[in-house]
Amino acid sequence: MSKEIISSWDKNAAEWIKVIQNDSIPSRKFTNLAILETIKQLDGDKIVDIGCGEGWLTREMANLGWEATGLDATASLIEEARKNSNQPFEVFTFEDIIEGKNIPNTPFDAAVFNFCLYLKDGLKELLSNTLNQLSKDGVLLIQTLHPYFLIQNDLKFKSQWLSDSWKGLPGNFTDGHSWYARTMEDWLHELNQLENSNFNIREILNDEEKPISLIIKINKI
Amino acid sequence: MSKEIISSWDKNAAEWIKVIQNDSIPSRKFTNLAILETIKQLDGDKIVDIGCGEGWLTREMANLGWEATGLDATASLIEEARKNSNQPFEVFTFEDIIEGKNIPNTPFDAAVFNFCLYLKDGLKELLSNTLNQLSKDGVLLIQTLHPYFLIQNDLKFKSQWLSDSWKGLPGNFTDGHSWYARTMEDWLHELNQLENSNFNIREILNDEEKPISLIIKINKI
């Protein structure tokens, strides 16, 4: 993860904790439920929440009966996560995974990236190296903004860097970091490059029946 | 193909020929170019244009050097196609393919369905049986409306039957047939069911950089 992203999260961690713990992002009503429903349908014992933030999803995983580890690059978020449960939470970066380091408590039956993939380059390596740390028949889940986001925000429908990751969120955020938005074509292109795997994609809708996110399920085969 | 669809095309064939031969559908400027560009990148000698209508694409395939066969369920369109070139054109239905009949002039190196897949049921069998009639490393191309169509037309973002296939087209059409519009999720679900193949998808844009169609490329492996 770039220094820009880590620096932005360091500056905004306290505000983010408030926003998440107050359930302030309206779309999360749909997307939190969607990722939890998807996790409920998985088989396995051990799961890792990569980019766990303050750890709400890692805690929910434990409620569902999983032995769940949470990882995040931002130390103050991991500190907050540790206050709220006795689960293993570790500062660990995407770069650590890309460099081939062993994830704490590996191997896992499932890994989840929930709204934390901001990167353009290195995605294939990040996902491949995560798949490599899963057990046989392991599953990798990604939740990310639906490409329709581009149209809805009057942007050209092409993959592109967007400048402010906090834009539109209900909090007093500063120093937004850039993030790379992908079209569906480019998501499929990335997923087609992963070896020994197949995938399917769910399109998550809000109560106006507009698509808001994708849940990508990659199966190790 | 259902009787409703064949009957609608029988009634509107003359009007369709006029619309196509006058280049009256604005989006075709982009989508015709897109399917031709995709075909140019294929290797092979023999190609089949399934649902060829009055045969414009089959003729263009010949211009690109292919030995091209055109098939359509509507006899009057095949009659028009035969007037305009000496290529093989045959009345042949999706049901013929689904029932496992040999396509005239099979095997092919490539097969194309350009804006003609209206069906809900039987899609897997139609595509599988077409793939079975391709040579080793053969390619099946589909061009279809982009699922964004649903949002653009204020419809719920879910796969659904739409009642009038001619709606919005610049011609005096009557007795529109129904057609089944799919979300991206449901397209991927269908494609994932095809055996011994992989696929990728291009999203074709208009000059406002809005997505208008998908070109699905299925590779036999």
Automatic annotation (TrEMBL), chains A, B:
Organism, scientific name? Allomuricauda ruestringensis (strain DSM 13258 / CIP 107369 / LMG 19739 / B1) (Muricauda ruestringensis)
**Mind listing the UniProt keywords for this protein, alphabetically?**
Methyltransferase, Transferase
Leader sequence range is none
Could you tell me which CDD domains the record lists for this protein?
AdoMet_MTases
State the source organism's domain of life. Answer: Bacteria
Query: What are the BP-aspect GO terms?
Result: methylation
- Give the protein name, as stated in the record: Methyltransferase type 11
Q: Which GO terms describe its molecular function?
A: methyltransferase activity
Instruction: Please provide an example of a Pfam family that matches this protein in its UniProt record.
Output: Methyltransf_23
